[in-house]
Amino acid sequence: MANIAIFLADGFEEIEGLTVVDICRRAGLTIDMVSVMGTLQVTGSHGIEVKADKLLDEVKFDEMDMLVLPGGMPGTTNLEKTEKLVEQIRAFDAAGKYISAICAAPGVFGRAGLLQGRKACVYPGLEGELKGADVQMTETTVDGHILTSRGMGTAIPFALAIVERFCGKETADKLGKGIVFRV
Question: Residue 20 in contact with residue 160, Cβ under 8 Å?
């Protein structure tokens, strides 16, 4: 089964991060909550404290199949300031391995030059941060190995798109129905 890492920084959007973790785990995927803060305790943008599974330095990136960035402020800024993470995002992109981001976080990909000529979406008003992208207004956009989504309200379709990548559409649809999402 797939190994996924979702990266948490102080100020992350709790619903975007935890919805992805919850839905991926329901699908039987392995997803580690990884703190980039140097401590397992991470505080979301609305003051909710979360205990990550591991620290950034403990991640075996060669064993990961996908990297996920939740949005939120200043969480997205804190993720982007984490050089080791940005280096790994670039390496995954170069290798054609899955990278995904929601809300403001797709801007990290845009500023890194990873969206040139690709379809992507982002939180409304931040479209200019998707440098070189064919900006979409869909809930979730998939272009090859890059998944992007627009915000808290699209966290479920974003998470289901991740499940679909690794478990297939039938499993994602069944899971969506099981959580009473658009039945």
Answer: no
